[in-house]
Each structure stands twice: as C-alpha cells, then as structure tokens.
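Subject: two folds for Thursday's group meeting

Dear M.,

Sorry for the delay on this. The cluster queue was jammed most of the week, so I only got both jobs back this morning. I'm pasting them in the order they finished. Each block is the input sequence followed by the predicted structure tokens. Could you check whether the formatting survives your parser before we put anything on slides? The first protein is the one we discussed after the seminar.
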Amino acid sequence: MIHRSDISQAIGFLLLGACIAFALFFLGTILYFILVRGAPAISWEFLTSEPRRAMTQGGVAPAIVGTFYLTVGAVFFSLPLGLACAIYLCEYSPKTVLVNIIRLSINNLAGVPSIVFGLFGFAVFVKAFGFGVSILSGSLTLGIMALPGIISASQEAILAVPQSHKEASLALGATHWQTIAKVILPSAFPGILTGVILNIGRVAGETAPILFTAATFYTRGYPDSVFSEVMALPYHIYALMTEGTRPEIQTQIAYGCSLILLGLVLAISALAIILRERQRRIHGS
C-alpha cells in the first residue's frame, strides 16, 4: 500500500529534479552560446599579443593581465579584512542592538548596486587619496564590494564549528585566541573559501566599479606598478560592443574575451577549490 507521505516525497523529488534540470539547461545554453561564438577568436596570438588597429586585430593579453591583477588584488584586500570582521562579530562582540545593526548593515551592503561602489571608489581612492585611475584604486573598490559576501560567508562558517570543539580547546587550557587560531579557523576554512570562490566571479566580471577607478580603453604594454591604469576584460568587452567601426569583427572578439573571462574565473576558482579540499582532508584526518 502506498502511503500519502511516499507520494508527497516522490512529488518533492520530482519537482527538485525539474528545478535542477531547468537551471542546468540555461547554464549549459549560456556556456554553449559563448563557446560557439567565442572559440573561433581564440588563438595563441589572441592570448599573448596586444590589440591593434582599433581593437580589430591582435590580442587581449593586457586585458587578461589587468583582470588577473584586479581580481587577486581585491581578494588580497578583502579576505583578511572580512575574516577579521567575522571573527570579531562571532567571537568577541557583545550581543547588543548596535552589533545587530552592524550585521544588518553588512547584509544590506551586499545589495548595493556596483555603480555606487564605483562612484565611492572614484571619490575616495582616485580623488581623496590621490591614487588616480590605477590597479590600486580598482582593487580596493572591488575589495570593498566583495567584503559583505566574504564577511557573511565567514560568519556562517565560524558559527558552524561545533561548540564542543571550542569548549574542549578551552578546557585543555588554550586561550580564546589560541582556540580561534588552532581550532575554529582550520575547521571554518573550507566554508570561508567557498565565500571567496563565490565572490571571485562577481569581482572579475564587474565593469561599473572599474569604469571610474582602474580601467582604460587602451594602453601600450603592461602595468609596471600598482599605480598604473590597466585594460580589463569586462571593460574591454563593453568597449568593443559600444564603440568601433567594424562591429562584426569586434563582436567576435568580444565573445572571445567573454570565453577567456570565464576561463580565468574558473581557473582562480579551481585553485581556491583545491585549497579548500586539501584543507578538508587535513582537518578530516
């Protein structure tokens, strides 16, 4: 005899599978579309040379390097700051209304449009601090944009560590900070890296924040310091699709840049995933 609970469970699994298939279908469609349109533009020259003749010839190597610098710089700035903030909120802050307001503000900050972060970076880093349009200004702006996500993910990872682990460490005579450094952070590290992975894609693909702080339409050669302006793949794609005299060629190049951008994000994310899995194995053992 089939129970009503079994029918409900079967329907639930069916709906869940349909939702997964629906999401995977559109994801696969997007990837296939970009791959088909962008693959013909990919070549060794395209990956290693500079653009020429109004972006219709040559390659996009400076844009690849610029995107890598901006992404790594943003993570380098936001990860320590976000982790420190999460540790304070979870382990040291008193349970007051002010702390709850801070947590709510962090969550709300994640929904701020990226163009607002770009204007903030332009006003503060480019103008007030005098960094100019540079890698430093762009990385700091992107880092601030990634902060809410990293703080939230780090808080969830720290709170997920079993309370018994903390109590056992303190019972053995460890200080609060030793417990955080030796017990809590190693256990929470895979979850923290998950937050970093999710924010890498957002940071690498943003155009608005770097529009005012770091990106330039064209520059000769590669950046030689953190105060150099750079080409970046998201802005390069935008420029190719909105400016130029040979749209058919520039459109193909733009799809090629999109494919490279996806590959760059996947490569950086894969590195973070490898570190996360290695940490899980070490902690599990």
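Second protein, same layout:
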Amino acid sequence: MPASRLKRELLRVLQNEGYIQSVQADMADGHPVLKVQLRYVDEVPVVTGMQRVSKPGRRVYVGIKDIPRVKNGIGVAILSTSKGLMTDQESRRAGLGGEVLCSVW
C-alpha cells in the first residue's frame, strides 16, 4: 500500500495488538510503500473483521466516557488522540478522547 505517516502509525498499533506479523517500508516506482504481512493462527487469519468508523464526510469524535467497546472487549477500536494513535484501552487509561478511526476484531 502507499506509505503515509497515518498508515504507518495505524499498522504499528495493529502490530502491537497482535493482528499483523510484520510491516516493511520499501520503494516501488520511486514512491514509498508499506508491505504488510498479516498474522495467521492455524491457517486462519487473526483479523476477522474491520469497520471504518470516521469518514471524510462524517467524522466521529468521542469523549472518554463514550469510547466504544468492540465485540465486548474482544476487538479493538483505534482512536486518533492529541497524543497520537492509540487503542480504546490505552485512551481510557490516558484519559483521552478523540476521533474513532476504525474497529478491528
């Protein structure tokens, strides 16, 4: 996929949570790209679903009390906060709200 700082940070969060095995920065046709290797357990992908929450036409911002729980805590919501991208649990611990980018389970 084409590289950007937001995509790199999003992949870093997913890798820390165990959804992605590895991320590699590379060049293709003179443009930076990111090569992502998904994680599998017994030939079954770890990522079973992903939903985009905020869109360019409709941004979804939440306070600390309204941070969503994905699949009753099994999944993870990724938020863009003033301290960078973080999971729903990390943002609750830090006491920060922000823009909900996506949910992964």
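Two things I noticed about the second structure. The mean pLDDT is 97. The chain has two domains: 1-46, 48-105.

Cheers,
T.
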